[in-house]
Amino acid sequence: MSEKASIQRRRISRNRIVFLIITFTVALVVAVMDQTIKHWVVTANVTYRINTGGFLGLFAGAVWIQGMAHWLLVVMLGYLFFFQKKYSFVEGIALGLLVGGGVGNSIDRWRYGGVVDFINLPLLPTFNLADAAITAAVGLVILSAIVKQENV
Fold first, then answer.
1. At CA 93, angle to CA 117 and CA 136, rounded to 5?
2. pLDDT of 63-108, one tens digit each?
3. How many domains would you assign to the chain?
4. Cβ-count burial 88-117 (b if 16+ within 10 Å, e if not)
5. Catalytic residue among 117, 128, 129, 137
6. Can you give the pTM of this predicted structure?
7. Which of 83, 59, 84 is nearest to 70 (CA)?
8. Active-site residue, from 131, 133, 134, 140
9. Is residue 108 annotated as a catalytic residue, yes or no?
10. The domain containing residue 104 runs over which residues?
């Protein structure tokens, strides 16, 4: 193996490790904050509702649609991690927000049979911190794609 190829491989490995650290840290912070707030909401008798549907209450009771959406997400995340050679800081943050929000809502489904939603703003469905993190992740991915497109 040439020296140039070896250096390139180390650079990709280091980049991947930094990406994983960023992703894991953001995911952990989001999931812990989400669960801490939801525990307080449930135990302090704050008004909340259990959402048995998907994002923003969509597909309530359609377990198979939610299951397929989760598998699609797993495939997309796998593609992002295994086939991409360069990882940006923004993509690490976005993936961390997405994973942390997904973990937070998955824990709710296991504990409560649905997701604890408690943030109620005018003109929006009731949501929670995990939903906000997932929405922010999607926004960051779109923004990142636009910036990459402009730099090509």
1. 40
2. 677 767 777 876 777 777 666 667 788 988 998 999 899 889 889 9
3. 1
4. beebbbbbbbbbbbbbbbebbbeeeebbbb
5. 117
6. 0.81
7. 59
8. 131
9. no
10. 3-151
